[in-house]
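HUMAN: Please help interpret these C-alpha cells:
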Amino acid sequence: MPAPRINMRKLKDALRLKFEGQQSHQQIATALGISKGVVTKYAGLAIAARLDWPTIAAMDEASLERRLLPAPRPSDIYAPADYGRIHQELRRKGMTLALLWEEYCAETADLFSADHPVKPWRYSQFCENYRRFAKSLKRSMRQIHRAGEKLFIDFAGPTLDLTGGERASIFVSAMGASGHCFATATPAQTAADWLGATAQALAFYGGVPQLIVPDNPRALVAQANRYEPRLTESALDFARHYGCSMLPARAYHPQDKAKVELSVQLVERWILARLRKQRFASVSEVNEAIAPLLTYLNERAFQKLPGCRASVFAQIDAPALMALPAQPWEWAVFKTVRVHVDSHVEFEGHRYSAPNALVGQVLELRVTAHAVEMLHRGQRVASHRRCAHKGGFTTVPEHLPERHQAHAQWSPERLLAWGERIGLACVQTVQLMLARPRHPEHAYRACLGLLSLSKRYGDQRLEAACAMARQVGTTKFSHIRDILVNRRDLLKETQSSQWSSPIHAHVRGAGYYQ
C-alpha cells in the first residue's frame, strides 16, 4: 500500500525551519521525527513552486497542499470501473470481486489505444475503491443477499378505509437481491391473509425463493423464540407445498428484514399517499388501484445504481428462483383426531371413513375448502371430498372390515324381506323406520338393531313387541328394546267389564236429550 502523506502542519513546521531557521535537513528531521528524505522532497517541491516563508505562513493547510501536491487525475491513467454494476453483480450466487476484477482488466485491455492509454487498477486498489463506494450508499450494516435466496414479507402500518366501515390492510413483499416489490390489499391480517397474500406474491414473481422471512406475527408463529421459533401447522404446510423454508426475523429487530421495511416505506409514499383521496367499496377495488402504481414503483430508476427494481429482478433474481408447484396452494387447517371403532373420524359433525387397520390410532386431518386428507405419521392414508352435512357419513367400502362391508350392503328391500319373515307387525315397523328419515340409510342401524333383538329374544317375542309398540304409536328401536327387556310383551291383555253409569238424581241420562 502507498505510504500515507505527511501531516500538513508538520510539513509547514519543516518549511519554517528550512526557510526561516536556516537549519539543515538532518536537524529538521531529528526535531520533527521524520526522515531526512521527506524534508528534502518537500523543500524541493516548495522551491519548485517558488514559495518563500512569508507566502507559506499566510496560506492555510489546504492551499499549501494544493500548491505542493496537485490532485492526481486517475481517470487520465487508470480506467474507471462501474462500481454500481459491480455492486449488483456481487448479488449473484458464486460471484466474487476477484472474478469481477479480471473482467474489468479484460475490458480495460480492449479499450487501450495510443490515443487513450489507460491501465486497470491493481486488485488491492480495485477492492479498496469498491469498499469506499459501498460505504457511500448508506451508513448502515451491509447485508449481502444472494440471487433468489430470500423473500421478505410484512404488512404496512397504515390501512385504507372502505365505504362499509371496514379497513383494508396492505401486504408488502420484497426480493432480497433486487428489492422487487409486491403489494396487495387483504381484509385483515389473519393467518389465511398472510399465507394467501404470500401465495399471490410468489405467483407475481413467477417462482419460489429458498427462504421466506416474515415478522413474528401470532398468525404464523406458534411460539416465538430468538433461536428456534416454532411455526404454526398451516405455515409449515405452506412452506412444504412450495418446497421452501420460512424463518421469522428476530423480535424487535427490524434490521433483519430491512429490505421489506424499505419497501413498506416506498409503498406508503408512492402508492398509499396517492390513494389517500380515493374511496373504495371493497378490497378488490383497492387492488385494482394498486396494480398500475406498483408497476410504476418497480420501474423507477435507482438513484445511485444502474437500472430499476424490475430490470434487476429480471437479470438476477428471476433466473435463480425455483419453479412454482403444479397445483395452487389452498388454505388448510389441521386437527388431531382418533379413529373410532366404526372406522370413521369426525370433523365438524360429519364422519369420514379411515382404513380399519388404524382403528384407535391418532391421525392428523388436513382440511381444505374442498377436501379432507388423513395423515398418519406424515403419510396420507385417506382422502375425501369435504361435506358440510352434520350427522352424515362419507364411507369408502374398502376402508371397512370384510364383515362390515357385508353389513354395509343392506338395502331397504333386504330389510323389508327380513321383516316379512318375522311377521306383519315387524315389517310395518321397518317400513315406518325407513320412511321417517330423509334418506333410508339413516334408519339402517335401527333396522339392523331389530335383527339383533330377534336373535336374542326370538321372532315371536319381537313380533309381539312390535305390535305393542304400534298400539302406543312408536317405532323407535329403544322403545321396542325396553318392551322386550321389561317382558311387557309376555303380559296377557286383561278383559275389563263394560262400565255403566250409576242411577242418580243428578244424572239426567240419554233420554233427557230426546
